[in-house]
Amino acid sequence: MQVRVFNNKDEASQAAFEIIKDGMANGAKTLGLATGSSPVALYDKMTASDLDFSNMTSVNLDEYVGLSGDNDQSYRYFMNSHLFNKKPFKETFVPNGLATDADNEPARYDQVIANHPIDIQLLGIGRNGHIGFNEPGSPLDGGTQKVHLTQSTIDANARFFADEKDVPTYAYSMGIGSILKGKKILLLAFGEDKADAIKATVEGPVTTDCPASALQNHDDVILLVDEAAASKL
Ligand code: GLP
């Protein structure tokens, strides 16, 4: 695992942008994408660039159960507004929050991932070390699951909703096993709130208590962090 510490989010996001640009120049066709505030500066750089994504495919990590793509709190809406509406991709995949067959949605999404092997997987990290919505306790080798969000994640996400009661309690998330199949993995983390999770990811044992620690088992992971997120290393 390579840890690169930057003065600020902008510099780290620029480095992530360069890695994606080089990857595309070297044949990357499928990007695994993430939501949350951490990748926003990177998406701004992608949309401001002259890179052409019209031959690219994206596969997103997760989606809230019960939210439609038109709901401005859904991850589909987030991706459309931050990236896809500005830079069209060939195909974009996000789990379907309104899947009528909820039991089948994880298997359907696993098939999407199998059909579109991910060249570069982008990740943020939760304060409790979650990646995607794989909360502590999730299997480190699993596929897509319907997951029950922890109170800490609900609290962290409540700022985006009018009322905490509106925050969905379930999500579909790509599993850690699927994430680890990405050929190259980039994890972005900024701010002091992430320092404990980054320490556990890099220095802790590989344990379900910190889902991101499973990244230690992958041979091409780059953490792009600011000084605050790196402050406990
Ligand atoms: C959510 C998302 C994660 C994201 C995390 C951190 O829980 N499911 O993919 O990494 O939030 O978000 P932020 O980047 O806003 O700190």
TrEMBL record:
Pfam family, one: Glucosamine_iso
GO biological process: carbohydrate metabolic process; glucosamine catabolic process; N-acetylglucosamine catabolic process; N-acetylneuraminate catabolic process
Molecular function terms, GO-annotated: glucosamine-6-phosphate deaminase activity; identical protein binding
A single Gene Ontology CC term: cytoplasm
Pathway involvement of the protein, from the record: Amino-sugar metabolism; N-acetylneuraminate degradation; D-fructose 6-phosphate from N-acetylneuraminate: step 5/5
EC number(s) given by UniProt: 3.5.99.6
Gene3D superfamilies listed in its UniProt record: 3.40.50.1360
Residue spans crossing the bilayer: none
Matching InterPro entries: Glc/Gal-6P_isomerase (IPR006148), Glucosamine6P_isomerase (IPR004547), Glucosamine6P_isomerase_CS (IPR018321), NagB/RpiA_transferase-like (IPR037171)
Annotated catalytic residues: 62 (proton acceptor), 128 (for ring-opening step), 130 (proton acceptor), 135 (for ring-opening step)
Keyword Hydrolase: yes
Domain Glucosamine/galactosamine-6-phosphate isomerase residues, every copy: 18-220
SUPFAM superfamilies given in the database record: NagB/RpiA/CoA transferase-like
Chemical reaction(s) catalysed: alpha-D-glucosamine 6-phosphate + H2O = beta-D-fructose 6-phosphate + NH4(+)
Record's keyword terms, sorted: Carbohydrate metabolism, Hydrolase
Keyword Hydrolase assigned: yes
Function comment: Catalyzes the reversible isomerization-deamination of glucosamine 6-phosphate (GlcN6P) to form fructose 6-phosphate (Fru6P) and ammonium ion.
Family label: Belongs to the glucosamine/galactosamine-6-phosphate isomerase family. NagB subfamily.
Protein name: Glucosamine-6-phosphate deaminase
Lineage: Bacteria, Bacillati, Bacillota, Bacilli, Lactobacillales
